[in-house]
Amino acid sequence: MPPQTGSAEKETQPVSAFLQLLTWEEIKIHNGHGQGQEQWLVIDRKVYDVSKFSRQHPGGSRVISHYAGQDATDAFVAFHNDKSLVKKYLKSLLIGELAPDQPSFESNKKKSLLEDFRELRCTVEKMGLLRPNYTFFFLIFLHIMVLDAASWLMVWYFGISLLPFMVGMAFFIVAQIQMGWFQHDLGHCSVFRKPKWNRLLQIVVISVLKGLPASWWNHLHNQHHAKPNCFRKDPDLNMHPLLFSLGKTLSVEVTFIKIKTMNRPSLHPYDF
Ligand code: HEM
Ligand SMILES: [Zn+2]
After folding, report:
1. Fewer CB within 10 Å of terminal CB in the chain, N or C?
2. Domain named Cytochrome b5 heme-binding: which ranges (predicted)?
C-alpha cells in the first residue's frame, strides 16, 4: 500500500456547534438496505451521508457502500493519498457527529484489535516500509521483460518441437505470474509516488502484457482490501459455480461439475 498518514482526523473540518448528534443505532440503519437505501458512514467520529455521492465516488460505488452504516476511518485513511482532494468532497457530505456518549466504532468491533492495527500501521510507516524501493521494482520489471522476450525467442529460434516449446512455456508462465504481482503493486500505487505513473505502468503490464483491464482488477481488488474475507463483500470469496460470469446476467455454467454454494460464516473479526 502507498505511504499514508495514520489518521484522517486532521483532514476533517472543525466541529460545528450545529451538527446533529447521532447514535450508532441511528447510523447502523442507514446501511443502504433500509427504506430509501440511505447510506451514512463515520470517519473520525463525523457522520457523512454518501447516499448520492457513492454513485459518483471515484473509487467506485461498491467499495464505499460496503461501509454504509459503519465506521470507515481506517479504510478511508488507507485508500486516499491525496487528502486535500478528498477533503473538498467531505464538507458537503457532513451531516452530523457521534454523540459524546457513543464509542468511536460499532459495538461488534474489538477495541484492542483496532488499537493493535493502528499501532502496527504507525510502526510500519515509521520503519519506512511503505516507501518504494525503485531499484527493486526496476529489477522486477527488467526480469519480467527478459523472461517474456526469452520465451518468444526460444520458440522463434528453436521452433515448436517439444523441448523448446516446454522451455519457452516455462519462461512465459513465470513471466506472467511475476507480471501479476508487479501489476498488483502498481494497482496499489506502491511503486511510484505519483498515482498517475503507477496507473500508466499498470496498464502496460496488466492490459498490454497480460490482456486484462486494469480498472476491472482495481475495482475488485480494492473491495478485497476494503473488506478482506467478508463473505458477499470480498469478491475474492465469491466462488460461485460458474465458468464465466459476464456482468450480472450473462454467464456460462459448468454443468458437469456440481459445486454447492456454501453459506460460509464471515472470517473477518469485525464484520459480515
Ligand atoms: C465520504 C467519504 C469518501 C470520500 C469523500 C471519498 C473520495 C474519494 C476521491 C475524491 C477519490 C479519488 C482520489 C484520487 O483520484 O486521488 C477516491 C478514491 C477512492 N476511494 Fe474514496 N472517498 C470516500 C470514502 C471511501 C471509503 C470508505 C473507501 C473504502 C472503503 C474508499 C475507497 C476509495 C478507493 C479504493 C479509491 C480509488 C483509489 C485509487 O484508485 O487510487 N473511499 N475517493
Ligand atoms: Zn493487494
Report:
1. C
2. 19-99
